[in-house]
User: What shape does this take?
Amino acid sequence: MEAYYEILSQCPLFTGITRQEMPEILNCLDKRVAEIPKGDPVFLEGEPARFVGVVLSGGVQIVRDDYYGNRSVLTVAAPGGLFAEAFVCAGLETLPVSAFAVQNSTVLLLDCRRVMTGCGHDCLFHSRLVYNLLQGIAQKNLALTEKIRFMSRKTTREKLMEFLLDQAKRHGSAEFTIPYDRQALADYLAEYRGVQCGAHQVVVGAGLEYLLGLLAPLLHGTAAVETPGYPRALQVLENTGMRCCCLPVDEGGLSLDALDRSGAAVCYVTPSHQFPTGVTMPAGRRAELLHWAARRPGQRYIIEDDYDSEFRFDTRPLPSLQGMAGADGPVVYLSTCSRSLAPGIRIAYMVLPEHLLPAWHAKYRLYSGTVSRFEQQTLARFITGGYFTRHLARERVAYKARRDALTAALTAAFAPGELTLTGLHTGLHLLAHLRNAPPDAALHAAARAQGVRLSLLSDYDLTGSGSTAPGTFVLGYGSLADDSCPSVGETLKKLCTAARDSSLRV
Assistant: This one.
């Protein structure tokens, strides 16, 4: 234990305790030292609330899972950090949270009953420990109160402005610096998407299209894209001079048989939530896709657009392809904050494999950043302060309620079996397939006549044939007002009726 005395001196519980006193104290508190591998639990929700933990090396994350399996990170304890003390001191019989090692960690566990009640040997340090414990809990309570003040604001803009005004007050000036380190983003991706990377692999840019346009010249050969798929991605790749081929999507995502036949060297996919079909690529097909790239190392690459991965309602998300491949695997990871925060915040990011970094720096080392330092610094603090994860948790609840209201309205407006809904488990849109539907052209004409903005699955057929699943609506609810959900079903029903009538007259 002597090797950890310096770390323990940084722990709030041991403030004012000398190194000479430390051995006696640890023995009195019934110390237990545990080596916890990365990802393993220190303790789990429902276990007896008995031990206070101190991180000696590595890191420990305190999490809470809701009914639907959505995970909220309450705090992360670094070396010298104290955790679980509030739950034990509150007298709870069982723990309401779980704790996991975020990397290979060494943890000191102390019997809190020994801290609170003394050992019966008239140890002079017990009163000091109790004082330290109460002070630490009080400080965490003040920090929580501050976070609630920020997060209680209704909009993202209000949250950010409240935070920035508080920083200006603390600095006594309207001008101040918030240190930014891409490590905050790297840590977030590692924890929530399983992405394996260092801060030096993260590239920040003003929008996914911008980053994709910079990436394409580093890759060679034909690029395969999904159809139906994201038209902007196809256009960006073609604008760089890259030859593209459009491959079909089935119930498991991109067809790997078609990929093998295509001769493509680059594959652009949206495995977490395929746009626009909404399907999620299963683990088996993800492994096969990685094997496709691994067969020709340095020649084949996967561009993983982790679209809508934050918004999963009924099932746990699968690990990212990049996380499965590793930090130097054949996967380039892309995502954005525009949907999770606000469209006006143009912050996208890309994680490059280690072996592509020399080529990236050689080509773009003189390029200036396209995202302001102010916005990057704010995002970093938003992440490290725990505000981002809480914001996402609240968004998931709100979007799930909006999805349920929309599906209820659609079910009420149409006859049983007339409208089939799919893609409900994740993302901010769903598909609605109309039985015995009129031609898509008639649906579009009826929508224009009624002043309704309408998207059909055939609109995203990148081959230009427009023959993909006719009569299938793509219904986004991300920007849909909550009070307008009940009227959507009736509006869509009237539109379908008008389209059927017009097609019969022809």
Summary: The domain at 2-151 is CATH 2.60.120.10 (Jelly Rolls). The chain has a mean pLDDT of 83. The two ends are 86 Å apart (CA to CA). Residues 387-413 form the longest helix (27 residues).
